[in-house]
């Protein structure tokens, strides 16, 4: 079975290749079908692994040697263990659903073929990233998804804002990619290996505190940039310029989770550095709170979901930071379901409202789109973590509760809990504004086909039911998840008994409080006095504007300074002019004329040199 | 025998093109392809690599020998020439340029295979002359660009010669054999300080061709003023002469000097890498973008060489080969724009993807290669160079690494302004997308890029054979290792 691992990223890559070479002959319709079948085939292989050999021990598939120089040895080797199996399942299956949804959603749009090419390449890159056995192969997948993200955000390239948003995303994440690369250099300088499974034991056996601190920070910046964590989150709200399906796949379900995945993968590294995990927990909780507060004030349906993604990723980082990576991974899975659902549904909503993204112009959609309403509501339930009947109740609340137990967990717990109130608030504000109330006159008739309904239905079922894999401790029902992952990730701290019960109830109350907040916010918004008028929240605490104003300008100015000062005056002017004038004088003396200057210089100089050579060469003879 | 043929065949073709005009275009292509075929037995390890002619005077010069690195560089140049010819196929002065390109190619082959320093030096000068001739007679016929190039290279190579003479004399004094061959010159045992001084001299001569910061003054003029095919060969192939000179002559002949210079060299090259990237950031002219990013990449190559560390060294070599592919791609992009009468300044472009989707897709591929996307050609070289030099001087290698961010902004911005966004109303109504010929050029270069990017081990394995030869010469002075 292990020999077939390459098929998992191989199918989508093949799809992208066929599309690139023969897409013109196939036509956009068949390009789409071909593209959709590829992640489906991948997910079949993944399913076969679930049913067949499993991933304990981890499966390895060595393909070829990428580069070997001295003590550096980098193979293209795929590795599948329990953690990456979860990631691979999400990427291939959710990826497939999104491809399926796109068939109708993007039909007749310009650039369909290009869209499917990048979508397939993206899935392939994501699968490589999660299955990489060494940090460099991971980096290859990491940058491939970055590129696809760029291309897909700029998909509707004819508007300059979209192209700009794509560039912004790529540049911000590239800053992180570069620090990640520097972190890799540091680790290699000390431990002479890039293979993750060899590196971590070495790190634990021979810790080098200062170096590991630097490496962890550099790698974390990479993870934060990719996962849109504060203050690198600025690219994600703008990335909503791409099609909604792209947001569903890349900016919710898969790529942005790569940072969390990397943190889980390298947990052994961060654990060695004192205080690092605590910092990750606090930063994660802060991002969760901060982005949730911004979500309350957005009026663009997709920007609400964008800030929600930043916030939910914060919870995942918090889970990793408090020593509950298996819960973080669980929430990653749950989030992939409900956020892909919400984004795709929001795509349909935007189509229904004739490309209007403003939720203040919407309302009463439940009457004519009952299917969309119920599936969307399932996603909203999961986002708000409605007790018992939504999956996030079992994943997100578990993380918040676990943080209460951790030493120094007060700050993450408080931030996480208040974030949960805000989350339920913006989730239900969105729902009430779009689906409840009077129907808006902007609404257009739209019939979703099966290709759109099936993915939504499956994801809705997942958003409700997937949490039942793992009930809170002491509850009757399955406890499959954390114990299955325990050999790799250990058991998370979990509150038991009365304490656990109280924390669960507090979490549930937070949700209900948030729903109330959402109802209030929606009413005020309808009355035209909503939170969206609060610029501080609507602009995302002014962070984006401040960074854009302060950071890029000095670099451009520095470039202009180098050009005007050093290059034009120094290199081009002085050196070249001085030399030319000097030579001109001497040549003038020789040639007594400006005519044919260049060739005369050349000839006289070469003749002189050859004479000199002849002299030297015959000297000892 | 083959190595002599590699030098003489292009020269013969050039001569024929000058004398007879009949079926000349076909002949130029046939010659270029034959040159590629000739490289194959070399790479397969043909033992007839050594060619020496036993004629007094000339005999000492014409000592040609193949080596793994020389073979790879020769193949790169041989492959680049058909690309250059294809790029300017419909150019008005095709034959004229083809003739100069053939002269240039032959001379480059000579620099790679020369086993005798005087031979190397003379070939090196012919390269400079042919390149200057090319700049002068192609493109905008700007004298100043050609003159600047000529003055830079000839003045500099004087230093090269003057730096080697003391080695020659010292070896002659101690052994009694006055000979310029590589074997006789190496192992001179000069003191470190003197070696450093001489190394600086050789560096002045060779660094100009790279071009190493701050000796790059000729690059903007030469790359911007000459015809795209000429600029393609200048930035893709002639720089290889400089790289080869450093790797095969300067460092092995003066290992102590190279070692002493190493920290300063790393700092200089790392500044140059960022400098090129920042200059590329401050222009709206695609040609200048390409020119300065080429300067930036070649300084990264120099960084890898100066680091004297095995990963960095291999990285520099593979990067210089990748850079040839990249130069091919980027200058083809410019050639295609100019062949359609379009400006290469992005202010006059904008939204071009709409009119030329194929061209847009391919352009993106080469831009991505230029910004070092993993999987494409530049990445293994950049990674190894930076990883290796990071083991020697972490801070400065780290600074050079930050150039990757600047590079990304440079190329994404150029792409956005020229290809994406609203269609520029000043663009003509109809613009032809890629022709079959142009598509094939891109396919070939794209395949080469993927090959270097993912199959890098096949190339690195060749460098491994080369490294032991040099590492013992460096008196175990190579940094790092274990």
SSE layout and pairing:
The complex is a heterodimer of chains A (621) and B (482).
Chain A: H1 7-51, E1 59-69, E2 72-80, H2 82-105, H3 112-131, H4 135-153, H5 160-191, H6 196-205, H7 209-226, H8 235-238, H9 244-253, H10 258-265, H11 267-272, H12 276-295, H13 301-321, H14 325-352, H15 370-384, H16 391-405, H17 410-435, H18 450-465, H19 481-489, H20 497-526, H21 535-538, H22 543-550, H23 552-591, H24 597-618
Antiparallel strand pairs in A: 1-2
Helix pairs in contact in A: 1-2, 1-3, 2-3, 2-9, 2-14, 2-18, 3-4, 4-5, 4-9, 5-7, 7-10, 9-14, 12-13, 12-17, 13-14, 13-16, 13-17, 14-15, 14-16, 14-18, 14-19, 15-17, 15-18, 16-17, 16-20, 17-20
Chain B: H1 2-19, H2 24-43, E1 51-52, H3 58-61, E2 63-64, H4 68-87, H5 94-113, H6 117-137, H7 143-175, H8 182-185, H9 192-207, H10 217-225, H11 228-253, H12 255-281, H13 286-306, H14 310-339, H15 357-370, H16 378-392, H17 394-419, H18 436-454, H19 456-473
Antiparallel strand pairs in B: 1-2
Describe this structure in words.
The complex is a heterodimer of chains A (621) and B (482). In chain A, helix 2 (82-105) runs antiparallel to helix 9 and helix 7 (209-226) runs antiparallel to helix 10 (258-265). In chain A, strand 1 (59-69) and strand 2 form a beta hairpin. With 621 residues, chain A is mainly alpha-helical. Chain A has helices at 7-51, 82-105, 112-131, 135-153, 160-191, 196-205, 209-226, 235-238, 244-253, 258-265, 267-272, 276-295, 301-321, 325-352, 370-384, 391-405, 410-435, 450-465, 481-489, 497-526, 535-538, 543-550, 552-591, 597-618; strands at 59-69, 72-80. Chain B is mainly α and 482 residues long. Chain B has a two-stranded antiparallel sheet with strand order 1-2. Residues 475-482 of chain B have low confidence and may be disordered. Chains A and B meet through strand 1, helix 4, helix 5, helix 23 and helix 24 of A and helix 6, helix 7, helix 10, helix 12 and helix 14 of B.
């Amino acid at each position: 079975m292990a020999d077939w691992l390459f098929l998992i990223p191989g199918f989508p890559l093949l799809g992208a290749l066929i599309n690139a070479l023969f897409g013109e002959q196939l036509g956009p319709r068949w390009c789409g079908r071909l593209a959709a079948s590829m992640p489906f085939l991948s997910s079949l292989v993944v399913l076969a692994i679930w049913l067949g050999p499993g991933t304990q021990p981890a499966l390895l598939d060595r393909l070829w040697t990428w580069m070997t120089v001295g003590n550096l040895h980098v193979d293209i080797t795929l590795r599948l263990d329990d953690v990456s199996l979860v990631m691979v399942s999400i990427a291939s299956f959710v990826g497939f659903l999104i491809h399926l949804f796109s068939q109708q959603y993007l039909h007749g749009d310009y650039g369909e073929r290009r869209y499917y090419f990048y979508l397939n390449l993206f899935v392939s890159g994501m699968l490589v990233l999660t299955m990489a056995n060494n940090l460099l192969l991971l980096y290859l997948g990491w940058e491939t998804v970055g590129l696809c993200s760029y291309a897909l955000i700029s998909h509707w390239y004819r508007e300059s804002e979209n192209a700009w948003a794509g560039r912004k995303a790529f540049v911000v994440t590239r800053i992180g990619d570069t620090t990640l690369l520097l972190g890799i250099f540091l680790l290699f300088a000390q431990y002479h290996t890039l293979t993750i499974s060899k590196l971590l034991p070495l790190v634990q056996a021979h810790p080098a505190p200062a170096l590991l601190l630097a490496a962890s920070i550099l790698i974390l910046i990479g993870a934060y940039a990719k996962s849109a964590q504060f203050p690198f989150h600025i690219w994600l709200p703008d990335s909503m310029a791409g099609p909604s399906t792209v947001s569903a796949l890349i900016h919710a379900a898969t790529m942005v989770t790569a940072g969390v995945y990397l943190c889980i993968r390298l947990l052994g590294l961060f654990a060695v550095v004192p205080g690092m995990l605590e910092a990750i927990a606090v930063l994660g909780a802060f991002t969760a709170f901060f982005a949730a507060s911004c979500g309350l004030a957005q009026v663009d349906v997709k920007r609400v979901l964008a800030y929600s993604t930043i916030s939910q990723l914060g919870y995942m980082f918090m889970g990793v930071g408090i020593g509950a990576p298996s819960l973080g991974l669980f929430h990653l899975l749950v989030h992939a379901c409900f956020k892909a659902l919400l984004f795709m549904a929001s795509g349909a909503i935007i189509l229904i409202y004739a490309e209007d993204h403003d939720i203040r112009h919407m309302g009463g959609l439940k009457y004519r789109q009952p299917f969309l309403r119920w599936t969307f509501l399932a996603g909203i339930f999961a986002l708000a973590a409605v007790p018992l009947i939504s999956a996030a109740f079992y994943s997100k609340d578990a993380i918040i509760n676990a943080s209460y137990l951790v030493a120094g967990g007060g700050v993450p717990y408080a931030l996480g809990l208040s974030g949960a109130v805000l989350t339920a608030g913006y989730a239900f504000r969105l729902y009430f504004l779009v689906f409840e109330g009077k129907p808006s006159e902007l609404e257009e008739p739209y019939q979703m086909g099966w290709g759109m309904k099936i993915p939504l239905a499956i994801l809705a079922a997942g958003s409700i039911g997937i949490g039942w894999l793992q009930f809170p401790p002491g509850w009757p029902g399955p406890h499959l998840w954390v114990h299955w992952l325990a050999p790799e990730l250990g058991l998370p701290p979990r509150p038991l008994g009365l304490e656990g019960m109280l924390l669960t109830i507090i979490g549930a109350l937070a949700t209900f409080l948030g729903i109330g907040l959402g109802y209030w916010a929606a009413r005020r918004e309808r009355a035209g006095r909503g939170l969206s008028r609060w610029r501080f929240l609507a602009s995302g605490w002014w962070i984006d504007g401040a960074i854009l104003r302060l950071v890029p300008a000095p670099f451009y100015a520095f470039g202009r300074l180098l050009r005007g000062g050093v290059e034009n005056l120094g290199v081009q002017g002085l050196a070249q002019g001085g030399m030319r004038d000097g030579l001109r004088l001497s040549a003038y003396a020789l040639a007594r004329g400006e005519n044919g200057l260049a060739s005369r210089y050349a000839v006289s100089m070469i003749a002189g040199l050859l004479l000199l050579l002849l002299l030297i060469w015959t000297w000892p003879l | 025998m083959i190595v002599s043929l590699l030098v003489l065949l292009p020269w013969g073709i050039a001569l024929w093109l000058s004398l007879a005009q009949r079926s000349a275009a076909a002949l130029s292509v046939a010659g270029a392809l034959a040159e590629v075929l000739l490289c194959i037995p070399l790479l397969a390890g043909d033992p007839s690599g050594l060619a020496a002619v036993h004629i007094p005077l000339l005999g000492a010069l014409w000592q040609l020998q193949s080596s793994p690195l020389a073979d790879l560089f020769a193949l790169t140049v041989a492959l680049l020439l058909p690309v250059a010819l294809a790029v300017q196929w419909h150019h008005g002065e095709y034959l004229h340029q083809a003739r100069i390109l053939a002269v240039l190619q032959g001379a480059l082959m000579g620099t790679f295979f020369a086993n005798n320093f005087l031979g190397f030096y003379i070939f090196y000068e012919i390269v400079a002359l042919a390149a200057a001739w090319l700049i002068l007679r192609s493109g905008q016929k700007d004298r100043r660009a050609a003159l600047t190039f000529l003055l830079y290279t000839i003045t500099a190579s004087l230093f090269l010669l003057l730096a080697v003479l003391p080695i020659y004399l010292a070896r002659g004094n101690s052994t009694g054999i006055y000979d310029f061959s590589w074997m006789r010159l190496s192992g001179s045992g000069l003191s470190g300080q003197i070696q450093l001084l001489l190394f600086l001299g050789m560096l002045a001569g060779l660094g100009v061709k790279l071009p190493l910061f701050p000796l790059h003054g000729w690059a903007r003029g030469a790359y911007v003023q000459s015809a795209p095919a000429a600029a393609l060969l200048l930035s893709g192939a002639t720089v290889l002469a400089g790289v080869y000179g450093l790797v095969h002559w300067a460092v092995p002949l003066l290992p102590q000097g190279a070692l002493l210079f190493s920290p300063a060299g790393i700092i200089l090259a790392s500044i140059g890498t960022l400098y090129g990237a920042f200059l590329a950031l401050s222009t709206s002219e695609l040609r200048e973008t390409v020119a300065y990013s080429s300067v930036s990449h070649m300084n990264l190559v120099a960084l890898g060489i100066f680091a004297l560390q095995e990963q960095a060294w291999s990285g520099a070599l593979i990067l210089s080969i990748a850079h040839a592919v990249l130069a091919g791609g980027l200058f083809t992009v410019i050639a295609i724009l100019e062949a359609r009468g379009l400006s290469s300044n992005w202010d006059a472009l904008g939204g071009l993807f709409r009119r030329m989707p194929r061209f847009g897709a391919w352009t993106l591929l080469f831009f991505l290669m230029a910004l070092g996307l993993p999987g494409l050609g530049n990445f293994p070289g950049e990674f190894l160079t930076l990883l290796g030099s990071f083991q020697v001087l972490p801070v400065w290698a780290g600074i050079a690494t930050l150039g990757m961010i600047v590079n990304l902004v440079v190329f994404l911005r150029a792409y956005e302004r020229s290809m994406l966004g609203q269609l520029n109303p000043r663009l003509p109504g109809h613009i032809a997308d890629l022709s079959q010929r142009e598509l094939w050029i891109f396919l070939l270069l794209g395949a080469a890029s993927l090959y270097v990017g993912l199959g890098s081990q096949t190339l690195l394995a060749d460098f491994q054979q080369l490294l032991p030869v040099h590492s013992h010469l460096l008196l175990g002075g190579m940094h790092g290792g274990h």
